[in-house]
């Protein structure tokens, strides 16, 4: 059994973007070794419940990385216009190597500065995969998503958010400490993957994440598990912006 790692400071903002830039060249290779990675993303997209293959709908992909989440959106919602955003220029360069339809565009910008980058709503859906725990202020990101959504717009967070059961935490530690980190270290990306390991341990449980989303002004919040070895480790949190709701709460402090 892999022991619980010693807490370390997490990478944030520019340091985290730089770490993703450096890891971009091997990122897709590592995630491809994760059974079900791409199928799970597509499942979370389907959980948005958007009609007619997303025809004429606007969808925002926050934290798109090398485009795995964008590809999932494009596969499930071929009729949607997708705006994919990431703070890492290196990850976006890798995303640009994939073939994309004209309905997909990529924007280099931190989530906190979308307006400066020309990203404006309203969007019919916001999808964020593996993003929220990597931001310095998750509540600010949720507030931005809320502002950018149209009334009744859908939100889906696809996130490593542990169930709270000790067994699921132990599996996460074993996979990261015994498999992912050794390989990432050999590739020269140990700092990033050590951060990703710790970021999950330090972040909300799935139920706490659902409460955070509710406190951000969303309704119909549900936590949906994902299958396979990630049961109890990865969840989809889906929610909806209410019709005409204004976010009046200040979120967590």
TrEMBL record:
Question: Is NADP there in the keyword field?
Answer: no
Q: List the CDD domains hit by this protein, alphabetically.
A: AdoMet_MTases
What are the protein's GO molecular function terms? methyltransferase activity
Q: Which GO terms describe its biological process?
A: methylation
Task: Tell me any Pfam family this protein matches.
Answer: Ubie_methyltran
Q: Does the keyword Methyltransferase apply?
A: yes
Keywords from the UniProt entry: Methyltransferase, Transferase
What SUPFAM superfamilies does the entry give? S-adenosyl-L-methionine-dependent methyltransferases (SSF53335)
Q: Which domain of life is it from?
A: Bacteria
Put simply, this protein is called Class I SAM-dependent methyltransferase
Q: Which organism is it from?
A: Streptomyces galbus
């Amino acid at each position: 059994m892999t022991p619980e790692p010693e807490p370390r400071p997490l990478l944030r903002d520019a340091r985290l973007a730089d770490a993703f830039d450096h890891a971009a060249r091997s990122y897709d290779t590592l995630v491809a070794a994760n059974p079900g990675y791409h199928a799970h993303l597509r499942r979370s997209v389907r959980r948005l419940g958007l009609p007619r293959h997303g025809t004429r709908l606007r969808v925002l992909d926050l934290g798109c990385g090398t485009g795995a989440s964008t590809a999932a959106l494009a596969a499930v919602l071929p009729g949607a216009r997708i705006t994919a955003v990431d703070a890492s220029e290196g990850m976006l360069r890798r995303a640009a190597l994939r073939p994309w339809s004209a309905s997909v565009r990529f924007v280099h910008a931190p989530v906190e500065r979308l307006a400066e980058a020309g990203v404006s709503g309203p969007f019919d859906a916001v999808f964020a995969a593996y993003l929220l725990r990597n931001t310095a202020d998750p509540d600010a990101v949720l507030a931005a998503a809320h502002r950018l959504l149209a009334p009744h717009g859908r939100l889906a967070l696809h996130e490593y958010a542990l169930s709270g059961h000790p067994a699921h935490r132990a599996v996460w530690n074993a996979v990261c400490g015994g498999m992912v980190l050794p390989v990432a270290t050999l590739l020269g990306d140990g700092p990033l993957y050590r951060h990703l390991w710790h970021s999950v341990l330090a972040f909300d449980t799935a139920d706490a994440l659902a409460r955070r989303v509710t406190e951000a002004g969303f309704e119909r919040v549900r936590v949906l598990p994902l299958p396979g070895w990630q049961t109890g480790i990865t969840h989809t949190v889906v929610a909806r912006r209410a019709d005409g709701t204004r976010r009046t709460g200040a979120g967590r402090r």
